[in-house]
Amino acid sequence: MTSSLPLPSEPEAVPARLTDAERERALAVLREGAAQGRLSHDTFVRRMELALAARHQDELTALTADLRTESRWSRLVFGSVGAVSGFTVRLRRAWQSERLPKLLLPAPGAYPLRIGRDPANGLRLSHDTVSRVHAELTFQGGLWVLRDLGSTNGTAVNGRRVIGAAVVQSGDQVAFGSISFCLATS
Question: Do 33 and 39 touch, CB atoms closer than 8 A?
């Protein structure tokens, strides 16, 4: 007859202590999440405290699970696509720029150049999308400044709508309503 002796129980597996590098990686993810606006200040501070007090990797994982960052490969692919996209925009702008009529900048020191449909303007543009008094071009402090004068259909410089005023230079594309020009010097 065999005696039934109790088998010694196996010791429980104790999770390894967190390394400083693991904790630092989690803190870096939290900092990045806060910088991107994905965490409020209070949430960031609370999670930092929890990360510093964490004893196991699963605690750190829980603190950063909603902030997973893109892999290096993803950043490389998306960065490349962004660069190519930006290049095509610049290429299209350059192509259009050569085909646009030139708008010669007046001599520095001249009176402001008013632009619009009104016959009293220095540059009269008879088009439905151009306001009666649309914009003004002035030379101030060594720079050309284009100011929208509350036009209905807007003024744009290089495809961006002007809110108030914008500094312009030779080679810039300007649009008054749907009428576009390329600025040039004489």
Answer: yes
- Residue 87: pLDDT band by 50, 70, 90 thresholds? confident
Share of the chain above pLDDT 70, in %: 86
Cα-Cα-Cα-Cα dihedral sign, residues 114, 117, 120, 124: positive
Question: Alpha carbon of 173 to those of 21, 63, 124: distances in Å?
Answer: 51, 49, 18
How many C-beta atoms lie closer than 10 Å to residue 148's C-beta?
A: 21
- Mean pLDDT on 142-150: 94
| Residue of 144 and 5 predicted with greater confidence | 144
